[in-house]
């Protein structure tokens, strides 16, 4: 139902992206999350051997929004696990509220639980410590109805204070490369939305 008969094409696209990022071991470490052992077997036939397959029940594919946000660099990296409420309870699917904590714990990084709603797709960062969001994302009545703008700003300052100091621990890549990677992820989201339509238009 979720993929309107296009699940095989979607699997192939996700696997191709995972393989491209992994690049035969020359690229990044890739962890591909699947719902169950059957999906793990299907994924194993599509991805390179070096791509790690994690079995963790989840509802939607958008881990950008449901998964933890990793901040900092090097030994200062931490996982921030924010609350998730199905995009303001628009698309309620089992597993989406639990997957963030599970993946944060699996990462082996220190985990900071955040008791307010924030989706990864609701912010944009440039790799230098600058983060941009909108009032619509965080102050909408279906996200954080009990918080004011001042509350959100205070919470963001507290989270920022816990993040790594890039002047002491430089980024592992140049700012231009970080910005380019963020732009490629945005293009991927646009592609998935345009190809599969419907509720997959998250951005």
Which structural traits does this protein have?
two-stranded parallel sheet; 7 strands; 203 residues; 40% helix; alpha/beta; globular
The class by helix and strand makeup works out as alpha/beta
Strand content: 5-15%
Strand order of the largest sheet: 3-4-5
Q: How many angstroms separate the termini? A: 21 Å
Number of helices: 8
Largest sheet: 3 strands, mixed
C-alpha-based Rg, rounded: 17 Å
The helicity comes to 25-40%
Q: How would you sum up the global shape?
A: globular
Q: Topology as H/E string?
A: HEHEHEEHHEEEHHH
Mean pLDDT: 79
Low-confidence stretches: 164-173, 198-203
- Quantity of strands, as a count: 7
